[in-house]
Each structure stands twice: as structure tokens, then as C-alpha cells.
Known about the structure:
It is a single chain. The protein has a single domain (5-72, 80-159), classed as Up-down Bundle (Ferritin), CATH 1.20.1260. The chain is built from five helices and no strands. Helix 1 packs antiparallel against helix 2 (38-64), helix 1 runs antiparallel to helix 3 and helix 2 (38-64) runs parallel beside helix 5. It is mostly helical. The longest helix has 31 residues, at 115-145. Residues 18, 21, 51, 54, 95, 98, 131 line the site of MU-OXO-diiron. MU-OXO-diiron is lined by residues 18, 21, 51, 54, 95, 98, 131.
Amino acid sequence: xxxxxxxxxxxxxxxxxxxxxxxxxxxxxxxxxxxxxxxxxxxxxxxxxxxxxxxxxxxxxxxxxxxxxxxxxxxxxxxxxxxxxxxxxxxxxxxxxxxxxxxxxxxxxxxxxxxxxxxxxxxxxxxxxxxxxxxxxxxxxxxxxxxxxxxxxxxxxxxxxxx
Length: 163
Ligand code: FEO
């Protein structure tokens, strides 16, 4: 079955949103690196890679369903933060926004009885629970340790070991 025009259009928009997310995390990675917080920079770089994988997942799915993808320009992103917790506040808020996009996609798939896309989107629903949880935990930890240099260095080291 070929993907519906409405669903295809919305998935195409989500590719752009995932690539914008990738760009945001790349920007954060660059900023952390310039603050000499290389563990944080590494963690954000992993995040950058994951978002590209999310975009590719959608592209591959649309292709599997005989749809086409039209890549759009990626809007500019923020390039500096006042402190690490501000970056993680932005991360948490951004992931909440992405979750709302995924839910909107799911609502459309349900509305048009596109069972294959509902099944496909389940992976993203689960992923977003994880993404929000991780961002919130790191934000809360950072708020506690941000002004204690030795603790911040330890957290930086820990983040540098992300698989
Ligand atoms: Fe692709 Fe972080 O959501």
C-alpha cells in the first residue's frame, strides 16, 4: 500500500525536525567543546548522530512505502548558552516539543487508519520517553553540581563514556 499524501507530507516535515535537532545538538557540542567540557561535547555529538539516524529511519520508511522525500532548508540554531544547565534546559524543552510532533504524527496515522505508520511510529514514542527522561535527569544533576568545579569535572568525565 502506498503511503497517503497527508501522512507522507507530515513525515517529510518530521525529517526536517530531526535534522534541525541534529543541528541543535551539533551546536551544543561545539559550544561545550569551546568551554573545555569535552565529555559534554562528546555526549552532544552522540546526540547529533542519533538525530541523524532518526531522520534516516523516517526517510527509509517513506521510501519503503513508495513515497518521496523532499529535503528542506534547516533553520538556524542557537549557538551559545550562559551555562551548561541552560543547554540542558533547552535540550529537555526541545525533546518535549519533538514528542508532541510524534504524537501529532501518530494522531494522523490513527485518523486515516494507516496501521503500518502507527506501528512504525511506536519506536519513536518509546524513544521520546527515553530522550525526555535522560535530558531531565541530566538537567537536574547539573543544577546541583554546576557551581562545584570538581563535581562538574566528574560529570564531564562520566558523559565522555557514553556508548
Ligand atoms: Fe529525534 Fe531527540 O528526537
